[in-house]
Recover the amino acids of this structure.
């Protein structure tokens, strides 16, 4: 059996060096931290061959006295600690007294240094940890450390080094982290004689972020300011639309020290819940400042791991600071058109006048007590394209207050009231209404109808029939508060259309319908008149995107994504107490065995949301469902939920509840391609433009912005 003996000091140094010095990036990190502790305002890092052959760190700090130069390279020699009580409140980046000894043990080191009160500097060389003699030398104030031939005497470690490009990238990353941790220090990085980074050192974190992370990412960041119990959180976080594919751009600092903190990372990503897409991660530069004795940095020789005395307070401070920054942002992703309009012009085939009325639909806006404009008169007088079967229309005397003109024009002389619950129709059943520019500045009554496909019997009320398959009612957007003195309107009496089921759209609407199922009555003030609000809804394109104009900006709003977020926020804020309906016949469908089991294991959660699900052989039978989910959407809703539960593997009830809310909000939202009334589109636009809705629950943006300048480039006006 071998005898127990004390290791040779040189062997012990090599073992210790393996803990501190893993690669050239470790050397750069330790030397830069020493420079910051010495009060440097400028730090320059130069490397060659990835830092393996040559690495130099120069600073303008206080320097090392000539008499202490050799001592600085001894193990456990430091000027930063003196007693055991100093370990309880460490305010410097270095404190262990191991870095210089470990670096010199596995390389050839040259050092030149001068203190402010010394007329000459000092120079020292070390090889394999063995020092030479200290000599006088002319040098500027501060310290210059040159490390050559790293791991030349430890071939076992040398063979595990990566390519020079990879090692150089790791050194660059270490330099970037130091620049972000101390924006008051000007940091320069030179690789193979070429400068790759220079920060201003003006003490502003924003300047360092711009220099380190680049313009593109910096423009997508928002400032964070928050405080908790004896701690503050500052920095920048990316907008949900600017999230990245990895966590590589997440930088956490505690009292100026770069750390790897799973706690802070969890708080950050929790703040982004329901705002970022799956597989996307936020970028951040977050500084946590707290009491020195509230954090333990003496956990690992690399000093990148810390322990917090109050983890819950740290989590809360980071979470609320980030959440406040995200909620306070009202910007939307900018749309940039490729090219500048040069070299290509667009020819519109069959270009027609913009005031042409579509054959299948007539749209007229009438202000009470005011004659129609010339454009409206032209639209009224112009005969519409004849349908396959010209409909019979009632006379003016058949319905008081409603007159019919030639060409299908309608005159309404009653005040405007809010519409009833929105009715959805499938795409392709008539043209979309045009609204916005020709609309009067005061609120009037917008009348929209499609020509019925079958003749209408005389003396029946005006009605519009949009053919679509029947569906269970879907939760609409909350209605605004009705005007108190609005005159009641005649309600359109539906008439069944032959051949196939239909959904009836009212042309003139009854006052103030009851609150939709599952919603509280709206307490909002009467919406601003068009001339009072800073934006104007210009219309809708492709039956999916709402166009809103504000100043020199045009916003394109995805009505489905925005309405989905509105549904989700409403359900979550109100605790979602659903109104459930028992089905006359159960909906039976099959899923994969794993998906079916995932749903059955969360049967209590499904019952909480109004679903009653039972096993039926190898299938599932749904006997009850909430009103917010159409009957035909029940299988797809539960299948989507089961897939999410399996892929995320979440056992957290809150997370599972959010997943179900996501799915139900999506199914209950307006669909892209559906025709939607202008009033409903306006409510969606208002929620987005007022800042209440920014991202859908899956993290996709609900609106993008196009500036006048960008548009003018395409027309060669810029």
């Amino acid at each position: 059996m071998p005898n127990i003996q004390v290791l040779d000091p040189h062997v012990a140094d090599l073992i210790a060096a393996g803990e501190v010095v893993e690669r050239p990036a470790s050397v750069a990190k330790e030397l830069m931290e020493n420079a910051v502790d010495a009060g440097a305002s400028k730090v320059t890092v130069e490397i060659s061959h990835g830092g393996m052959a040559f690495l130099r760190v120069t600073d303008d700090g206080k320097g090392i006295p000539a008499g202490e130069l050799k001592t600085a390279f001894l193990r456990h020699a430091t000027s930063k600690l003196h007693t055991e009580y100093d370990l309880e409140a460490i305010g410097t980046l270095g404190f262990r007294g191991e870095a210089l000894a470990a670096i010199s043990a596995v390389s050839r080191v040259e050092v030149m240094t001068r203190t402010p009160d010394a007329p000459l500097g000092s120079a020292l060389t070390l090889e394999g940890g063995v020092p030479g003699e200290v000599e006088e030398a002319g040098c500027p104030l501060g310290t210059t450390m040159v490390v050559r031939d790293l791991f030349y005497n430890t071939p076992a470690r040398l063979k595990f080094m990566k390519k020079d490009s990879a090692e150089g990238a790791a050194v660059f990353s270490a330099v970037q982290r130091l620049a972000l941790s101390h924006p008051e220090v000007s940091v320069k990085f030179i690789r193979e004689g070429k400068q790759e980074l220079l920060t201003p050192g003006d003490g502003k974190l924003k300047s360092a972020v711009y220099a380190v992370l680049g313009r593109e990412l910096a423009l997508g960041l928002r400032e964070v300011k928050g405080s908790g119990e004896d701690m503050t959180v500052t920095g920048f976080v990316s907008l949900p639309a600017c999230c990245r594919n990895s966590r590589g751009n997440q930088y956490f600092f505690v009292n100026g020290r770069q750390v790897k903190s799973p706690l802070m990372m969890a708080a950050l990503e929790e703040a982004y819940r329901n705002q970022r897409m799956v597989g996307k991660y936020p970028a951040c530069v977050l500084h946590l400042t707290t009491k020195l004795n509230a954090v333990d940095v003496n956990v690992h020789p690399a000093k990148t791991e810390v322990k917090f005395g109050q983890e819950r307070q740290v989590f809360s401070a980071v979470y609320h600071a980030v959440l406040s920054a995200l909620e306070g942002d009202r910007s939307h992703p900018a749309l940039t058109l490729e090219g500048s309009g040069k070299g290509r012009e667009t020819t519109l085939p069959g270009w027609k006048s913009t005031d042409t009325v579509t054959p299948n639909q007539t749209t007229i806006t009438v202000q009470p007590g005011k004659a129609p404009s010339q454009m409206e008169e032209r639209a009224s007088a112009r005969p519409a394209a004849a349908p396959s079967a010209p409909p019979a229309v009632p006379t003016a005397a058949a319905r008081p207050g409603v007159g019919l003109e030639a060409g299908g024009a309608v005159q309404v002389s009653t005040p405007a009231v809010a519409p009833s619950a929105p009715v959805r129709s499938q795409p392709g059943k008539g043209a979309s209404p045009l609204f916005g520019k020709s609309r009067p500045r005061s609120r009037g009554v917008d009348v929209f109808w499609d020509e019925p496909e079958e003749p209408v019997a005389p003396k029946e009320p005006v009605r519009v029939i949009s053919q679509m398959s029947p569906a269970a009612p879907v939760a609409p957007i909350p209605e605004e508060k009705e005007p108190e003195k609005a005159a009641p309107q005649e309600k359109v009496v539906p008439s069944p259309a032959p051949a196939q089921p239909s959904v009836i759209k009212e042309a003139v609407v009854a006052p103030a319908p009851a609150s939709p199922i599952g919603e509280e009555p709206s307490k909002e003030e009467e919406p601003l008149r068009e001339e009072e609000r800073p934006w104007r809804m210009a219309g809708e394109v492709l039956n999916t995107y709402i166009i809103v104009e504000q100043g020199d900006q045009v916003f394109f709003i995805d009505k489905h994504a925005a309405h989905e977020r509105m549904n989700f926020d409403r359900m979550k804020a109100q605790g979602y107490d659903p109104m459930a309906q028992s089905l006359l016949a159960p909906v039976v469908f099959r899923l994969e065995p794993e998906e079916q089991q995932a749903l059955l294991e969360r049967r209590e959660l499904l019952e909480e949301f109004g679903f009653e699900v039972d096993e039926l052989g190898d299938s599932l039978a749904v006997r009850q469902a909430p009103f917010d989910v159409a009957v035909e959407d029940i299988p797809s809703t539960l299948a989507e939920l089961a897939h999410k539960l399996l892929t995320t593997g979440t056992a957290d009830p809150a997370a599972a509840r959010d997943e179900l809310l996501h799915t139900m909000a999506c199914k209950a939202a307006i669909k892209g391609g559906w025709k939607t009334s202008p009033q409903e589109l306006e409510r969606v636009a208002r929620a987005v433009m007022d800042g209440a809705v920014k991202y859908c629950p899956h993290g996709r943006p609900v609106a993008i912005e196009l500036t006048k300048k960008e548009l003018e480039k395409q027309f060669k006006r810029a």
Notes: Residues 214-327 form a domain with the Ribosomal Protein S5; domain 2 fold (CATH 3.30.230.10).
